[in-house]
Amino acid sequence: MNSFWDKYDNLIDDAKNSNKLELAEKLSQVKRYVNGLTDGWHDFMNGLNEILNSAESLDKDDKNRIKEIIKLT
Question: Taking the model in full, what pTM does it have?
Fold first, then answer.
């Protein structure tokens, strides 16, 4: 079973490999919010939701994977 961060990093890697560099960069930036504090996780979740809601270029698989990550948190 993959860990949460393995799944997240795989999503970033897959975005890079599919030449979705803007998505990969946004996901990488959002990951930096997690600092072990509650407000960091809050910012992380807000960032993921912003990516999910603002990116019309996301395909169905990307959206589903981001939704799965949100559910895991």
Answer: 0.86
